[in-house]
Amino acid sequence: MNEIEAVDELADRVAPMIGRAVDELQIAAVLESQGFTDQVARERYGVKDVFALASVVFRHLPRDVEALPDAQRARRTFRVLSHGPLFLLPSLGYPAVYDWLGGLPMVRGLVFTTAIGWWWAMGMSLVAYRLLGHGLDHAAGRSLRLLGGIGLGVVAAGSLVIDTRLWVFCLAQMGFQVSSCVMVIYKREARLALLMLPACAGGLAHLVFDMMLVALCCGALSIVLVLVESWRSAGKAAPDTRKPPRMPMLLRLTAPSVAYSALCAAFLLNTDARFVLAELDLGLAVAPLVLGMGAVEWRAHRYSEQALDQLDHSRDVTAFRRCIQWLLIRELAHCLVIIGCIALLMLGVLAQFGLLTTRGSLLVDAHVLLGGVFFLGFVLMRYEGLRSSLVIMPVVVIANVVVNLVVPGYEIQVFLTGCAVLLVLFLLVSLVTAGEVRRYR
């Protein structure tokens, strides 16, 4: 029996023990419980360890796709679409923070906290979703509490190093990021919006009536409320009846996605941090992308659902590949159109008041393209294409930094070019990998 046949036989043997497998981690746990060791994996199946064997077995298991009822799908769509506007809510309090701290310290704190919070929240989410997928709800909640607390400590300590006045602002910003991460996992988006109402009302009061102290107090109240609610949500589950998977396995699964998130943050912030305090159109250039991120996530979900549906109904590999590639292009176009429409609406308002410049338009265009990059990144992350992303992203990020140092004054053009290059390269990689049937099994 060759190695492929041996893996097929093993997949058939463990399938009844696994049921509907969530990921490789679940299969690895079953294999270890059956006495499989790294040595057995190497000698009998030709892979380096049990985890690698679990990955191979996972691709040989059938996937049962259950269609969501229309009402449930509509609720999920609404929740996902709300993510973009939700993540913009704290920005209503930034003018009050600007008046309190000053422009430059605020930007430093904002960039530092966003850079840390971006990939930290990604790591928290991935660990929790893996554990929830195994029915380990208590372990998932405990991991969210632990990682969230560590993240708050890291940001508080780092902000003191940057500027001793920043720790309150950075702690509040990171508090929102980790809390929103928890509440999205537990589908508490509506409650998150409700708890952020004081911060939004205070921010608007400051803009209209110059009430800085009121805005800061209202913002602090909202952050405390969302922290308490996220802590409560993460602690509701009853104790697990099984031990959680080993932490090294969890780290191996999450590390590539966390690294990719960190690179995305570096690429975006390297340019946008320069324009937070610039002209209004430059400072708002990222807004269409943030508002449209829920739509990007939504279309990524729709791509996965339709791809698996095609897999169930296709009988010819060539036809399947053609359909999936067309589906990928169509969903990418949907993302670009949605974010583009938001951008056009914002540009139209700015132009109406004489606040739009050519540089502002170019920077907005760059963020629209970046929305397409993020969509393709979601797809590559879901279907084993993250390695390619981790090769492409560092090259573009480094090139972006180096060119800006060598030829200063062209940051927007360089960023736009980088976004276009990323979009083309990610699309080419996605088109090549999209039609490979093994990625959907």
Automatic annotation (TrEMBL):
<feature type="transmembrane region" description="Helical">
    <location>
        <begin position="249"/>
        <end position="269"/>
    </location>
</feature>
<feature type="transmembrane region" description="Helical">
    <location>
        <begin position="388"/>
        <end position="407"/>
    </location>
</feature>
<feature type="transmembrane region" description="Helical">
    <location>
        <begin position="144"/>
        <end position="162"/>
    </location>
</feature>
<keyword id="KW-0472">Membrane</keyword>
<feature type="transmembrane region" description="Helical">
    <location>
        <begin position="362"/>
        <end position="381"/>
    </location>
</feature>
<feature type="transmembrane region" description="Helical">
    <location>
        <begin position="80"/>
        <end position="98"/>
    </location>
</feature>
<feature type="transmembrane region" description="Helical">
    <location>
        <begin position="332"/>
        <end position="356"/>
    </location>
</feature>
<feature type="transmembrane region" description="Helical">
    <location>
        <begin position="204"/>
        <end position="228"/>
    </location>
</feature>
<keyword id="KW-1133">Transmembrane helix</keyword>
<protein>
    <submittedName>
        <fullName>Uncharacterized protein</fullName>
    </submittedName>
</protein>
<feature type="transmembrane region" description="Helical">
    <location>
        <begin position="110"/>
        <end position="132"/>
    </location>
</feature>
<feature type="transmembrane region" description="Helical">
    <location>
        <begin position="413"/>
        <end position="434"/>
    </location>
</feature>
<keyword id="KW-0812">Transmembrane</keyword>
<feature type="transmembrane region" description="Helical">
    <location>
        <begin position="275"/>
        <end position="296"/>
    </location>
</feature>
